[in-house]
Amino acid sequence: MDRRNEAITRSERKNDNAQLRYHGVHTCVCDDCRYVHYDMVDGIPNVYKVRREDHPEIHHEPFHNMTNVLKQNNKVNWAKQGFSKNLYKRVPTDVRSRYERYFNDEFWNLQWYEQDYRNNYKNEMALDMNLVPVYEELKFTGKGIRVAIIDDGIEYTHDDLKDNYDEEISINLNWNKKDPMPRYEDPTNSHGTRCAGEIAMAANNKKCGVGVAYNAKIGDYKRL
């Protein structure tokens, strides 16, 4: 992991914050460690980006000594050195999985994240969960597990959820009743149903996809 010559700092002192905002890019945060403020972190009050301009922009080793000096400054409440994070493309959609016919559900082949593409891309990062051996060898399918979601309700009558729906762990806390069916007059009330499907969609019913724990029981504490 490559470290950068910058740090994220937090200061609760209003006078210091006002000074940082007023002087902008070249305001010195800490004279003895020669960091300069060059930006604010959007959306997070009192948090700033600072940089050591006399150091290489990227370095392979962390600058513990300089970060510690920054932390000890009375203007700074918290500090952490920045680092570069590499992003990788996910597995191409045209790659074939050895488990593509394991379930007969309509969209199982699109659920690449539950399958195993490492057989095709041995030198690539493993971005899938490779769940089928867990089902086959360990016999873990969610059977005996009960999962309650706190969300905007679940459509428990859906063909892919109805057999795994657990009424005993479901409640509508908005109206103090058992029925957690979403209010579909608001089209955004579908998040809980999607989450329930990701967890406990039934397998081998030729509908939709397969939940990661397709034999688990699912319920909902409807709060939204």
Automatic annotation (TrEMBL):
This is Peptidase S8/S53 domain-containing protein. GO terms for cellular component: extracellular space; membrane; neuron projection. It comes from the Eukaryota. Residues 142-222 form the Peptidase S8/S53 domain. The keyword S-adenosyl-L-methionine does not apply. GO terms for biological process: peptide hormone processing. It comes from Aphis glycines. GO terms for molecular function: serine-type endopeptidase activity. Transmembrane segments: none annotated. Belongs to the peptidase S8 family. Keywords: Hydrolase, Protease, Serine protease.
